[in-house]
Fold:
Amino acid sequence: MTATNTHPPKPKSSYKSRSANLTPENLRKIRGYQMIVGGAIFLLIPGIELYRRLYAGGERKIQQGEFNPLDGSKKEWDDETKIKNFKESWLTKLFGER
Structure:
């Protein structure tokens, strides 16, 4: 036995389809533009921070403590630990203490 569809066909809608008919070449171009914009965002945000720190005289923020996501507790560091972690970080080694 074969199963037959007993439902009547759906009437065609007068609205245009929401999907665009794009060729693979146009899809590649669109994907390329998306990657350019995405890459620009990853360059813009660090660039703003570097400009603020190097040319606008901004100071780097020092980490004040740790957050434990398991129980939601915050552990505040004393001044000695803050300075030790600041001087040992790779950002301080790369950009200096400024």
User: Anything to note?
Assistant: The first helix runs from residue 24 to 54. Residues 61-98 form one domain. The longest strand covers residues 65-68.
